[in-house]
Specification:
Blueprint lengths: L2 E3 L4 E3 L14 E9 L11 E2 L3 E2 L4 E8 L10 E4 L5 E5 L3 E2 L11 E3 L13 E5 L10 E8 L12 E9 L5 E7 L10 E10 L2 E11 L4 H5 L3
Parallel strand pairs: 1-14
Antiparallel strand pairs: 2-16, 3-11, 3-13, 4-5, 6-9, 6-12, 7-8, 10-11, 12-15, 13-14, 15-16
Amino acid sequence: MAINLVKGQTIDLRKNDKGESFDLSSVTIGLGWDVKQSGGGGFLGKLFGGGEEAEYDLDAIAFLLDKNGRVADRGRSFQKPNGNTVSLYEGDVIYFNSMRHPSGNIWLTGDNRTGAGDGDDEQIIVKLDSLDPKFDRILFIVAIYQGRKNNQHFGMVDNAFIRAVDNHGKEIAKFSLSGDSTYNGMCSMTFAEVYRKDGTWKFRAIGEPHTTDNFLELLKQY
């Protein structure tokens, strides 16, 4: 049975206190959310007034950090045919414009722009047992795309969670957040981290909110 984590709690991903072992050859980090209802009753969903579905785009991002806690490779920039410049491409940051690491050992499965549907809304899959030893920690960020512009923040999000699932589909741990006034005005979140410790991998629930909706601002720390 998966462990429901509280903020600041750390667990061993390879085995738990009940003697269960987990296959970390491929681990899915799943993230999900719902938009808080504007009125009472009804079903959980993405309906804001008038019955119209709101555009509410949360993006999952992963920073691969070295032993010094730094993102060593920030990839390259290139210009798309439409003139837009993409940065951090094929570097140690996994996000919607660079969804697969050059090593092939960590990737984002897709960019869900609404959070519609049950279960994980976005997934980052990482082959922990195959990850290059130079990577010591993976930090998982969630940012609301254009949250400042659209006046959207984590105070408007319900049922936000991050969970880790092993190669056989067994849920190892889950960390949930409920939208409340604490998150008003907060447009990104350092949700959790996975890090090496004594020959295994640990998962730590962080849940640190930030006002910025631009993960590049957070990247400056690394």
